[in-house]
Write a structure and sequence with these properties.
The complex is a heterodimer of chains A (253) and B (325). Chain A is α/β, with parallel strands linked by helices and 253 residues long. Chain A is built from six helices and 15 strands. Chain A is 27% helix and 32% strand. Chain B has 325 residues and is α/β, with parallel strands linked by helices. In chain B, helix 3 packs across helix 4 and helix 5 runs parallel beside helix 8. The chains are: A alpha/beta (253), B alpha/beta (325).
């Protein structure tokens, strides 16, 4: 099974966020660049299934040069190929269109993504890619394996509140991974250094002949939700804080 | 901007989910300002009781998509049905929950119909001629106000538990059925099995007090004091998703939209940052106490009392205090 894994480079933490004049993104100073958490689960599961079924795994991301670190992580985790779609697009609608166009040009049986990125928190790129490609999809997936019927994948997905569903989906398909069952492995430094020497393919939006896909929103302002906090903050030493909070608890129970 | 509004209904055992009531309240207010119609789309196999309830619940139209094939949730069929309803009713705005249903069906319908989807919103309003939403970003540590700029229909998913649920004046709603021929659908996915609900000896949904731990407690070997505090308060220990994912506690202890919703009298969130999937499932608790190192942690947004500090120092002090009392 040839599998394409979509990954996103996200900031470990951010400082000084602001909305530029273009109003189509939030800029910031990134503390570090890491692979998005649920994408890491998708990568782990995608590479594993590709190897098990004698196929190739390709890791792909859409972003600027700094995002290629996640591709190296992918290669370090034994993905066979890596592709970066060179774009500064931020909007999930544009990102999903760009990724779908790039994937169209590849040979694949299955596309796997994470459920949601920690920065945009839009949770819509995976399903949107599926729809752009006209493929069946499953969201919030915890496990996957080759299906019993030929040319299918069997997945276990969450339906919420403890309910899960097992489905067999015809390939090609898109599967969006939730964090969960199998924790991602750690890439040893030596392997990571070897991965950095492997070739990365770069596609520009021009190569993809993507029509100008407009941004879906105009960002007006950003603010920290703690400004809206109504919590009564308890100050002091831990012992003083404990005394106050235990008193509050006593008033309730 | 104006136009009809459609709410995507979520229901279980013939009862409406709170998110649907929240969206109906918002949809009604906006449709009244715009002078347009509010509809609710109900999808399922035995939906008569829900349709009956909705007929007098303040909406103008109930769109009923009923078919035996819709008994169990199928992303594929629900997407097809929702797209059909949107095509027929022609809403400018489609409201849904930022729930598993909304996360799957929403983006698919938006792409299929060439509309614009904005997810994970905490509020939305029509301001002058524009549709303005507020949404979560960066783990909920930041929120953004955005104007929808793409092409209609606009699909907006809203986090559960944030909008009020006003009592709407009863209306005699028209019921229209969405004609679907699912027998002719070439299905690409097959449901093999449905595994329901978490089983285990512990039922955190019945606890009066929950001491709930997050990744911030540091490791499985550090959990005992939290168990001790729960025991001292006659409660149980619960946790956030990462704690269950990492195997520090069984999933039966997990609070969140993928596991259990809880409403104890007291909820003590220890080292839990407050991801929306967690907060949605505990925000209706009586008194919420949050302890976290990060003063910007979103959990403080829903807490009644907050302590900025190290849980590994505060919790032992609370146990000592409990022993004193």
């Amino acid at each position: 099974m040839n599998i394409i894994v979509c990954t996103k480079a996200v900031p470990g933490f951010i400082k000084n966020p602001y909305v530029p004049d273009t109003q189509d993104r939030v800029n910031y100073d990134a503390g570090s660049i890491v692979i998005n958490e649920s994408d890491d689960y998708a990568l782990e599961a995608g590479v594993k299934l590709a190897k098990k079924t004698g196929g190739k795994a390709t890791v792909i991301t859409a972003g600027s040069l700094s995002s290629q670190k996640v591709l190296q992580t992918g290669l370090g985790k034994d993905a066979d190929r890596a592709i970066r779609v060179d774009t500064d697009a931020y909007d999930p609608a544009r990102i999903s269109k760009a990724l779908a166009e790039a994937i169209k040009g590849q040979e694949f049986d299955l596309v796997v993504t994470g459920v949601e990125s920690s920065d945009s928190m839009a949770a819509q790129v995976g399903v949107s890619i599926a729809e752009h490609l006209g493929l069946p999809f499953a969201y919030a997936v915890l496990e996957m394996e080759a299906g019993e019927a030929d040319n299918t994948v069997r997945i276990t997905k969450e339906l919420g509140f403890g309910k899960k569903q097992i489905e067999e989906i015809e390939l090609p398909a898109v599967v969006c991974f939730q964090t969960g069952t199998e924790p991602p492995s750690f890439v040893p430094v030596r392997k990571m250094m070897m991965a950095q020497r492997k070739p990365l393919k770069t596609l520009s939006i021009g190569d993809l002949k993507m029509e100008d896909y407009a941004a879906s929103v105009k960002i007006l302002e950003i603010f920290t939700p703690t400004d809206l906090s109504v919590a009564e903050m308890i100050d002091g030493t831990p012992a003083e804080q404990a005394a106050v909070v235990m008193q509050k608890i006593k008033e309730v129970i | 901007m104006n136009g009809n509004i459609l709410v995507l209904c979520e229901h279980k055992n013939a009862e409406l989910d709170n998110i649907t009531l929240e969206l109906m309240g918002k949809g009604r207010a906006m449709a009244d300002v715009w002078g347009t119609r509010l509809a609710v789309l109900v999808i399922g196999s035995d939906i008569e009781p829900v349709v009956d309830t909705l007929k007098t619940s303040g909406v103008d139209v109930v769109l009923a998509a009923q078919d035996p094939a819709l008994k169990d949730y199928s992303a594929e069929l629900y997407t097809t049905v929702t797209a059909k309803a949107v095509t027929e009713f022609k809403p400018t705005l489609v409201l849904m929950g930022y729930t598993y249903l909304g996360m799957e069906v929403g983006p698919a319908v938006a792409v299929r119909l060439g509309g614009t989807m904005v997810t994970n919103c905490t509020d939305l309003n029509a301001v002058d001629d524009k549709l303005i939403v507020t949404r979560n970003m960066f783990g909920g540590t930041l929120q953004a106000r955005m104007e929808l700029a793409g092409a209609p229909p606009y699909l907006v998913s809203v986090e559960k538990g944030l909008l009020p649920r006003p009592e709407l004046p009863s209306k005699d709603a028209a019921v229209e059925s969405i004609a679907i021929d699912l027998a002719g659908e070439n299905l690409h996915s097959k449901i093999v099995d449905i595994l329901s609900a978490i089983s285990g000896k512990i039922d955190i949904t019945k606890a009066k007090v929950l001491v709930s731990i997050g990744r911030g407690v540091g490791g499985p070997e550090k959990i005992q004091p939290f168990r001790d505090l729960a025991a001292a308060l006659g409660g149980e220990i619960s946790c956030s998703r990462p704690v269950a994912d990492m195997g520090w506690l069984p999933v039966a202890h997990q609070v969140g939209i993928s596991a259990s919703t809880v409403t104890p009298d007291i909820y003590i969130a220890c080292g839990i940052s407050g991801a929306s999937q967690h907060v949605t499932a505990m925000r209706d608790s009586g008194t919420i106490i949050a302890i976290n190192k990060d003063p910007k942690a979103p959990i403080f947004r829903v807490a009644d009392y907050g302590i900025v500090g190290d849980v590994l120092e505060v919790i032992p002090a609370m146990i000592a205090e409990a022993a004193k009392q």
